[in-house]
Amino acid sequence: MPIVTISIFEGRSVDQKRALIEGVTDVVCDVTGNVPEAVNVIIEEKSRENWAMGRQLGIDRPRVGR
């Protein structure tokens, strides 16, 4: 029973989370041979104020992408 934990920043829609879970589940099934019902995906949402990189809080860093 594979368990995948994904940490992402808050703000994604439910539809985006569904798509993420579907894609991750498909890859895990392709690689491990498990059926989708055996794959667990946990999404942990993080706020930018509780994350830092290079001594700088996420809320103080310029946003890239998205």
Keywords:
66 residues; alpha+beta; Macrophage Migration Inhibitory Factor; two-stranded parallel ribbon; two-stranded antiparallel ribbon; 27% strand; elongated
Short description:
By secondary structure, this protein is of the alpha+beta class.
Structure description:
The chain has 66 residues and is of the alpha+beta class. It has a single domain, classed as Macrophage Migration Inhibitory Factor (2-Layer Sandwich). Helix content is 29%, strand content 27%. The protein is built from one helix and four strands. It has a two-stranded parallel ribbon. A two-stranded antiparallel sheet has the order 3-4. Helix 1 links the parallel strand 1 and strand 2. The longest helix has 19 residues. The chain is elongated and about 40 Å long. The model has no long low-confidence stretch (mean pLDDT 94).
Largest sheet: 2 strands, parallel
What topology, given as strand order, has the largest sheet?
A: 1-2
| Global mean pLDDT | 94
* Gyration radius over CA: 15 Å
What's the total number of strands?
4
Q: CATH superfamily membership, which one?
A: Macrophage Migration Inhibitory Factor
CATH architecture label: 2-Layer Sandwich
Q: How many separate structural domains?
A: 1
Coarse shape: elongated
- Identify low-pLDDT runs: none
- Under CATH at level 1, the class stands as Alpha Beta
The total of helices stands at 1
Gap from first CA to last CA: 32 Å
Given helix and strand content, the structural type is alpha+beta
* CATH fold annotation: Macrophage Migration Inhibitory Factor
Portion in beta strands: 25-35%
How much helix, percentage-wise, in residues?
Answer: 25-40%
> What is the ordering of alpha helices and beta strands?
EHEEE
